[in-house]
Prior knowledge:
The structure holds 3 protein chains of 3 kinds.
Chain A: H1 3-18, E1 21-22, H2 23-49, H3 73-81, H4 89-105, H5 107-110, H6 122-143, H7 161-177, E2 184-185, E3 188-189, H8 200-203, H9 206-214, H10 224-229, H11 231-242
Antiparallel strand pairs in A: 2-3
Chain B: H1 21-33, H2 36-44, E1 46-47, H3 57-76, H4 86-97, H5 101-128, H6 137-159, H7 164-178, H8 184-192, H9 201-231, H10 245-252
Chain C: H1 12-40, E1 52-55, E2 66-71, E3 81-88, E4 104-108, E5 119-121, E6 126-128, E7 135-136, E8 142-144, E9 153-159, E10 162-171, E11 177-178, H2 191-194
Antiparallel strand pairs in C: 1-10, 2-3, 3-4, 4-9, 5-6, 6-7, 7-8, 9-10, 10-11
Amino acid sequence: MNQAQKEQYLREYSILKSQGKPFFPYAVAKDSIMAMIVILVIIFLALMFGAEIAPKADPTTTTYVPRPDWYYFFLFEVLRVMKNVPKFTPMATIGVPTICMILLFLLPFYDRSPERRIERRPIALAAGITTIAAMAFLTYSGANTGSPNSVDLQPPSSLSASQAQMFRAGELVVGESGCLACHVIGDNGNNGPGPVLTHIGSKLPSQAIASTLRNPTPPMPSFRNLAAQSPQKFQQLVGFLSELQ
Amino acid sequence: MPRPKRPGEAQDVGAFPPAEAGITVVDWIDERTSLSPGIRWMLFRKVPKGINWAYTLGSATLFAFLAQAVTGVFLAMYYRPDAAGGAYESIRYITDDAFLGQFVRGMHKWGASVMIILIFLHMARVFFYGAYKYPRELTWIIGVVLLILTLVMGFTGYLLPFDQRAYWATIVGVNINGTGPFVGPFLSDFLRAGPEFGATTLSRFYAIHMLLVPGAIGALIGAHLYLVSKLGITAPPWLKAEPEPELLEHSEV
Amino acid sequence: MPGTFEGETVNRRRFMNLVTNGAGGVAAVAITLPVLGFAAGPIFSRVPFEWQTIGMPADFPKSTYQTRVVEIVQGIGEAGKTTAYVRARDPSIDTEPEDQYNQFVALSSRCMHLGCPVRFVAAAERFICPCHGGVYDFRGMVAGGPPVRPLDRFYTRLKDGYVQIGPRYSVNSELRRFSPRDPGEPLDGVGQYLYPARFSTSQIPQS
């Protein structure tokens, strides 16, 4: 904005201001109603959901699955999305948030146009909507990320009771065997380096699944030891995978 | 000027009715502080026409901060920043045993979420209305610093219950700080007060959460509000300024 | 300059300005520097470490890991402990040079992405991190996901017939030893210079 535009703005603003009403009580009334709504919402949330407390902090745990508070879900999701490029881990952790904050901080310095109506600021409109959509999407997918140590699938309704039991047992074996570290099953697991297993049962017969588990292509580890030591668990694993149609 | 009353002389009750005592107190303070012009300037300044409910988001955020400050002060009456077990035990006491404990802790916990949502909504309003432009750039910058400080409050406060979720979130958060090149390792040593999560990490987070950052937020809110009052609230950008008819006549003459 | 004698450069007003700024500055620095130093002190004080006995050599097979709880910070009870995965050195797979400190391989349970707790899955012979899906192979080398270097290790030694565990150290992808770094800090290439060693981490005790 040059000097003339600045003066033009101040002139127009002083006219609009002189036509307005006093802050007290006209604006304050709205503010007070809003304050009342805010405190009622907080009280409602406190009464509805309370404040639970998780088990005591235990740095020696090897089974706990940490998850952040909801307002850090977007960062959590950025870290998860960037996981296949270890070289860029510091970029995801420090780089992206720092750049976003600097861009936010310096906004008045690089957006110097005098136009204030959003429909005439296409770049600002696009940037704003993109940011909101990205944050919403990342928060949503961060919130819905399952643990890579368990599968949450319903057995298909076509299965008999004993088959459904097998399905459940196999789910557990998959969770504790760490398959989800490299494979996606349903909503759980990491996409890569292994292939998606959500529909593996329709692609491979159960014998092929069993032999792949015994003699996999590296870097996948062999499950020969599991087959030798607890054949029942191995059967449940194969049974579960071949039901993933 | 009337002669001062002597002790024992009949009291002149009529000249000093109780109903005016309040006004008298205000006058007494004002005579010594001269605050009333400032308050009048703050309260009776005009706001441009056309303001709507979106303009209440800023004051709503301020109110959420005040609610956090009040509940936080009272939670501090029961809380012990002791990593060896006292912290978790005191939070468990507040949650399970203290009268209204879970309610007050719930208000603090959910108030944090509400405050962050309100900040983002307020920021979106300012962004889409172009309200960060001349002459309000400094107000925006102070606002961004307030946003960062609020996220710091969220991060430091999250550790205090010292349960599993708190501990691991803090480990991850401190390590994220550590990935900054050159200064990162020393920054995370500073946050933890040592190379590992140690005896004074919790009290460090506690001091930052309840003294350092709230003080800074309070001071910056003061500056933010002063600038808002001084520069005036932005008019909705779609309003066109039309000079008053009498002003137009003057300019045509 | 008005109000100044001939040839005078510091008049009374300028002198008072200097005094105000100087004294105010000294007062501000005198309060700020000590408290900042006080707060930053832990960065520069080295944490002591003791060898801890974790069992007999026969307790640790070559083929799988045993978990042991190790105290890494004294005086805060449970919060100062961590888990180590320990096995005996297997010369057929452990290719790093052998010395008195690696007769037993002790891996830290902290994921080298951001420090979440990793879990050893015996069936897959993998370490798996539940946060962002880091995977390590049997030797603790990165097998997939975002971790930037292999799992940290602990010095171990044999003393009077017992296995003892000492301070933690970090390794790069060739298993070269470095003083302990925080998770998320790569040590390959320029990494060791981008993330310098800290003054506070425990050194291996001489005994």
